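Sat 14:20. Reprocessing the chain from the morning session after the first attempt stalled halfway. Input below, unchanged.
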Amino acid sequence: MKIVAVGIATLDVINRVERYPAEDSEVRVLSQRRCRGGNATNTLTVLSQLGHDCAWAGVLPQGPDAAYIEEVLSGQQIDLRHVRRLTSGKLPTSYITLSDESGSRTIMHLRDLPEYRAEWFLEGVDPEEFQWIHFEGRDPDELEVMLSSLSGVDGLRVSVEIEKPRSGIEALFHLPEVLLFSRHYALSAGCDNAQSLLKGVAQQLGEQRPLLFCAWGDKGAWALDRHGELLHAPAVRLTSIVDTVAAGDVFNAAVIHALAQGESPMAALVQGCQLAGLKCGMEGVEDIFR
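Finished this time. Tokens:
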């Protein structure tokens, strides 16, 4: 299947420590690595490994960091024709601290690039070329134009990741076929579990609602199908957690893959939890099936 994702790529600098440091303290870093990150490109990297023909629509500045990102994505056979290259700005950079003690990851993110604009999408991305388009739920104004432009395109399936709260994004929930929520978004919406979030969104949207998914870390993940049935799949139990960075992006990729293959929402949920668990037992997502 031909899939394009609209979102960001980042440079991730990941420091592994014994335990998360207290404020105004000094700790020794056990290991450090530098890699490509970003929700959309993480998801595409996994989908490419699952056999899909993938493309990325995002923004890159000039400079060696952006060249590194292009090299890594090209190595995963991800089409970069829809990338908008700018002469100014800095590649988004995430400084990530991984705690061996808890398995948590804490992210400090620097961004100095504009979001991918609707006008670039309308000019450069032909929806007839793809069977699936996946969006990061970022700038709601730009996202609304892009989603609305896809209405009525035959054979096209559309998903949106809702990771963070953004003013006005709830008004767009009826536009895609699939919504993928994060625990972070659910908590920000006042929901202390995935079930209450999904039921609340379903009540808001009524019968003409998308498929709804929400991953919840070690509690597993939930989905609400179009018949109103609440589904749950448990998380994979690991003897040790190596790296949780991008686990949510891997979950999203597995769900998209399963649905694209004609699998049921329940099967997609199970595959999402299994692949996210596999990812948590290894570093990175570039070679997840090794």
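The chain has a mean pLDDT of 95.
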